[in-house]
Give the backbone structure.
Amino acid sequence: MINLTTQKLRKNAIQFLEQNPKQRLQTLKLLGIGRYKFLTKVKLNEANIVCIMRFFQNPQQLKFPNLVSADLSDLVLDEVNFIRGNLTYANLQRSSLVNADLLFVNFTKADLRDADLTGATLNETIWLDALVEGCQFGQGIGLTQLQFQDLKLRGAKFTHPNNEN
């Protein structure tokens, strides 16, 4: 049996995802987490219901975005701040994260196929088993040489000529 707190969190998450972006932003601000404006764009589906439940569970203690298994596919998230975010198993297919702050992000087993990370800051990121085929990295700012080589072997695209060594 699901406890009542979980049922209420789930109901609140669904209601949030049924709102329009303006209403969602108002809700986030009321909870003190208006800085996570990108949540106004996510789709209503099971993966995102669970994700929103985590955000709503204890918003006062929320420091870094926990986006494990979130569906962020096909979204424009340019200049988003995901610093220290956990995007393990997240779906970022075809999403735009141009000039995003992605320092210390964990992309373990995330799907970034055909995503655009041009200009994103990627220092101290983790890419274990991430799907990166067709992902645009531009210069690959902050990647180590080993990460650059590994990602390129897995199909990532780098557009800056200095990365051709």
User: Anything to note?
Assistant: The chain is about 30% helix and 0% strand. The helical segments are 4-18, 21-30, 46-57, 145-153. Residues 1-62 form one domain.
